[in-house]
Amino acid sequence: MLPIAFAPSYAHPLPAGHRFPMLKYELLPEQLLREGTTSPADFFVATPPSAADILLVHDAEYYERLRLGQLTRQEERATGFPWSAALFEREVTILGGTIEAARLALKHGVAFNIAGGTHHAFRARGEGFCLLNDQAAAAAWLLAHEPTVNKVLIIDLDVHQGNGTAAIFQHEPRVFTFSMHGARNYPARKEASNLDLPLPDGTDDAQYLQLLASTLPRLLDEVQPNFVFYLAGVDVLATDKLGHLALTRAGCRQRDELVLNLCQRHQLPVVVCMGGGYSERIADIVEAHANTFRVAAGLFN
């Protein structure tokens, strides 16, 4: 089984200007089902978690203002979204889906959130299209509720640094944050992850994969995690409008193979979230994301 959190509402509450990159949340499951990589039984409907679960990593006052639509205009602009009740529901649903995926990964070895990867959300503010930090919340939930989990590794391979996640866990030794990202890309001001690997513009498949292959096995040996979160953004592609790296789809798939192979060999439960992808052609985004699921299906099914 390949458990996948999905909610049809992911794509709909957003203003028209934001809908194109969000279409992948509808098109990707359709593609996976059509080709037989997944079956309808693999999908579960993501639901909002309790406020207590969200408050494991978010400030109560920020959460209440977000829930009630009381963010300032400046705070709203930083997120990139105009507030709406539907947007709030979308964000908490995504977060709940990643927590449920974490529960299921303990049972099945791997689980996905078709959305997720909202790594720019800090404890008390949102930015960069992220209002609540789903992987951070799920990591904190595991540490609070699952006695078998006492060390979490977050592998963030989105092209943008996971600044919110790094800041949330800066004083939490049970979570190790690793971000490999474009050096000159958003955010302009980077936070300090436990390990940051900034990449120059134009980094290609060979350079990227060599660096990752020389880093990740050593990291697993040093950190000794018993749970992994993987942010598998496809904005590393050369076709991406915002990424500035030069990976091919084949290189992106090799990246996924490297990460997921290591998790499977070390018997590490892993939750995968999709993160960013902003290529001109929606087909490039969907196909690159679909490869991540195909790799996992081959390894874990």
TrEMBL record:
Pfam family, one: Hist_deacetyl
Alphabetized CDD domains for the sequence: HDAC_classIV
Top-level taxon in the UniProt lineage: Bacteria
Gene Ontology molecular function, alphabetical: histone deacetylase activity; hydrolase activity
Keywords, sorted A to Z: Hydrolase
Hydrolase in keyword set: yes
Domain Histone deacetylase as annotated: residue spans: 24-290
InterPro entries named among the record's database cross-references: HDAC_classIV, HDACs, His_deacetylse_dom, His_deacetylse_dom_sf, Ureohydrolase_dom_sf
A biological process term (GO) from this entry: epigenetic regulation of gene expression
Cross-referenced SUPFAM superfamilies: Arginase/deacetylase (SSF52768)
Matching Gene3D superfamilies: Histone deacetylase domain
Coiled-coil portions: none
Entry similarity comment: Belongs to the histone deacetylase family.
Protein name as catalogued: Deacetylase
Organism expressing this protein natively: Hymenobacter sedentarius
